[in-house]
Amino acid sequence: MFQHPNGRHHVVRGHRLWVEQEGAGHPVVLLAGLGPAGSHVVFHPHFDPLAGDHRVIYVDLHGRGRSDRPADLREITFAGDVADVVALLAEVGPAHLYGFSYGGLIAQAVALERPGLVTTLTLANSLHSPEMWQLNHVNINRELGAQFPETWERIQALRRSGLRSTDAPLRAEFAAAAPLVRFYNPGNAALLATEPGARNDELYPLFCGDDVDFVIGGQVPLIPDFRPRLKELAVPLMVLAGRYDRALYPALQREFQTYAPRARFHVLERSGSFGHVEEPGTVLELLRDFWHAS
Hints:
Layout: E1 7-12, E2 15-22, E3 26-31, E4 54-59, H1 78-92, E5 95-100, H2 102-113, E6 118-124, H3 130-147, H4 149-160, H5 168-182, H6 203-208, E7 237-242, H7 250-253, H8 255-259, E8 264-268, H9 275-278, H10 280-293
Parallel strand pairs: 3-4, 3-5, 5-6, 6-7, 7-8
Antiparallel strand pairs: 1-2, 2-4
């Protein structure tokens, strides 16, 4: 269980974003993932201790969580998400950015376009390009086929019947296997907070394509490939990877160092895709050390 900090709506670019804040000190803005469909709830309660010496800011992007929802979800774009975060940062002041999964893509764009608004950049279980998004699904499917052949056979049979990966029967098969491919300890999946409305399941196939577990589509191919520009980053960068992340696996995460050689790189040895859930103490220790050194 968790308790929401105090929150309110902030009007940003003509719509309202839900923002919660706790603590005092230098701002830390947390940008969520779960694809592009998740809300800030994924961070609760694991970042609570940071409020002892930082101003921790949780954000629901447009159309997610408690923020305003457009009548047409196709209005939600990556560029729009970036512009919203830039506008919010202009209001709250320069901040440490922590981008988890999809949130890391937004954080990279903000740090490159508006470095004056960013003190440091942390990318956690994140990605640098649409190509990496595709490779993450390729590896998940490889793991499913190798470790859960009975599940994979059912998935293949459903696809032969004409279903896409975001259709309910296929979603159920992928969801059942998710704890085993996304966590170091599958039992830790129970520690991932949720609540009604925490994930916009209608947005996911529109933004990612309706067969995203096999071929990315929708808005995803339009996201920039940040690799050529990472050397331009003017702010300190840290990358966190999970040793047992079978999606955005460590070999993919290490590519950030190829393109941004000054980046700090840490592998969380008892984590999968959700380091802040499985090793919250280690994540917070690494963050404080990174911020102090920067």
